[in-house]
Inverse folding.
């Protein structure tokens, strides 16, 4: 009862938003769609939630076809769109009641499912949704998407613009929802969140770059990555980019991730080269690939 | 060589009625420094920045930005800083060239200087071919690089970047950081806010606000040591969660 996506394409005029996308989300899986703005994430969500019709291909959600069974799908999915989806001028409680009523249920009937999240915003239940902080809006939107006990939950960039504390709490909530037999498809532009999913699809320009577990994707990174640093970061980047054997040079916080084209790469050579560029305090150490490294290598 | 401070804040405070949004923050930012200004939603970051860029008068304390006093010289501050946020940066319904001309004009550049700057900027960003296209039609990454350059059009001493790279693909994001490093190496001070802690790792120094106060301020490396954390995200969680 997961999600099945087969050769889905969608274009808007001359923009191909999705180009022949296929993948499956297993029942009860927490699956991440990872990619930047404009990758096609929202288009895919809208096709799966029956709000948009694909030009080609087919898809099913919880065993129901997105074209033939669209009315039925709408009863069984929860959708939290990227932009704030609540009624700003209704209170917290009114929003929740509204969504419960629309789906022919009551807050009481499925309270168990949202209890843990709702108690955190309950002290503000008489506050208008428009007046809530980012973290609280996000929690309310999640409650509203869950109130009818959906089989599949679609979360489109739920953590964009939210601070790290609220983000962490949000991901902890998703893990617990998963234990309640809900299949979750979540999208994010933030690569560090990929590690929290069971499996991920990396997506860019309407194409899937890779699908696997986060660990497997990182393990398949084809090269050895070195953390390079020295006294002047901008000089390090410029020098490495000018080095004839460089394969990739990407700033990563206090280091630069460097890969070399040679099989028999020796860090001493690089050290000498950087010294000759008048850099000091040079360090070159092996490091682990991250999802971001994999994404950039695949997107290159 | 004398190191000059581009921001000096001393006991800077802002109250709204009984509520103290910013509680006596004291810090300085050096010339050419990349300074990360972090904090949870509601910690007081936005209020603090509004005071620093001259659009909100502090309740008490003192601060100088680019050499000007936040109480008495707010207009001078506005002329001498750059500002870029993801929410507002460029006009989508003006072309690339029109945006450059518009912002150059706002900051009082002469016609000949605007012409010079336009040429330099388009070349630098490789945007010559799309100079007459509407900004709204450009990919997000291009827009962001362009708006950063536009924020620097009047050669300000300091540029404030509010969540500059949200949603951008990782390669473009790094090109953006290279532009920041370049500006910093040329002596421009960079003041960045972000919710994304991997971004904080790029900064020379980082401050973290909790409930209106600056609770930590140091290099990312030292903060990680101080809080026994592997990364800035853990530092943040330890501080903000208490």
């Amino acid at each position: 009862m997961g999600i099945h996506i087969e050769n889905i394409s969608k274009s808007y005029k001359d923009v191909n938003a999705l180009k022949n996308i296929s993948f499956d989300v297993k029942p009860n899986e927490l699956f991440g769609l990872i990619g930047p703005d404009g990758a096609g994430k929202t288009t895919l969500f809208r096709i799966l939630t029956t709000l948009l019709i694909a030009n080609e291909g087919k898809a099913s959600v919880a065993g129901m076809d997105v074209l033939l069974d669209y009315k039925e799908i709408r009863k069984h999915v929860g959708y939290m769109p990227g932009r704030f989806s609540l009624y700003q001028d209704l209170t917290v409680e009114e929003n929740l009641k509204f969504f419960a009523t629309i789906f022919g249920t009551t807050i009481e009937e499925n309270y168990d499912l949202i209890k843990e999240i709702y108690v955190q915003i309950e002290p503000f239940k008489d506050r208008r949704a428009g007046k809530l902080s980012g973290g609280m809006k996000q929690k309310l939107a999640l409650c509203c998407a869950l109130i009818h006990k959906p089989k599949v939950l679609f979360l489109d960039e739920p953590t964009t613009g939210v601070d790290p504390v609220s983000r962490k709490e949000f991901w902890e909530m998703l893990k617990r929802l998963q234990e309640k037999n809900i299949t979750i498809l979540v999208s994010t532009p933030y690569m560090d969140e990929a590690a929290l999913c069971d499996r991920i699809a990396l997506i860019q320009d309407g194409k899937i770059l890779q699908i696997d577990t986060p660990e497997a994707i990182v393990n398949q990174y084809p090269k050895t990555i070195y953390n390079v640093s020295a006294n002047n970061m901008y000089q390090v980047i410029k020098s490495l980019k000018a080095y004839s054997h460089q394969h990739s040079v990407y700033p990563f916080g206090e280091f630069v991730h460097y890969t070399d084209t040679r099989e028999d790469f020796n860090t001493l050579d690089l050290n000498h080269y950087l010294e000759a560029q008048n850099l000091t305090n040079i360090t070159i150490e092996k490091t682990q690939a991250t999802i971001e490294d994999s994404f950039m290598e695949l997107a290159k | 060589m004398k190191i000059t401070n581009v921001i000096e804040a001393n006991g800077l405070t802002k109250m709204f009625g009984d509520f103290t949004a910013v509680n006596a923050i004291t810090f300085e930012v050096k010339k050419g420094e990349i300074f990360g200004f972090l904090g949870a939603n509601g910690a007081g970051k936005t209020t603090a920045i509004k005071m620093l860029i001259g659009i909100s008068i502090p309740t008490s304390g003192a601060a100088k930005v680019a050499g000007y006093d936040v109480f008495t010289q707010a207009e001078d501050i506005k002329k001498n800083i750059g500002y870029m946020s993801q929410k507002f940066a460029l006009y989508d319904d003006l072309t690339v060239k029109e945006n450059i001309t518009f912002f150059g004009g706002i900051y009082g550049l002469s016609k000949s200087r605007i012409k010079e700057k336009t040429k330099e900027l388009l070349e630098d960003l490789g945007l010559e071919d799309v100079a007459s296209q509407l900004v709204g039609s450009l990919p997000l990454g291009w827009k962001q690089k362009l708006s950063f350059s536009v924020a620097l059009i009047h050669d300000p001493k300091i540029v404030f970047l509010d969540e500059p790279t949200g949603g951008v693909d990782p390669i473009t994001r790094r090109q953006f950081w290279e532009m920041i490093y370049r500006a910093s190496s040329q002596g421009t001070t960079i003041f960045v806010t972000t919710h994304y802690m991997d971004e904080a790792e790029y900064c020379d120094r980082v401050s973290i606000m909790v409930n209106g106060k600056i609770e930590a301020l140091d290099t990312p490396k030292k903060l990680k040591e101080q809080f026994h954390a592997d990364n800035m995200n853990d530092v943040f969680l330890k501080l903000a969660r208490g």
Q: What stands out?
A: Residues 225-299 of chain A form a domain with the Alpha-Beta Plaits fold (CATH 3.30.70). Residues 164-178 of chain A form the longest helix (15 residues).
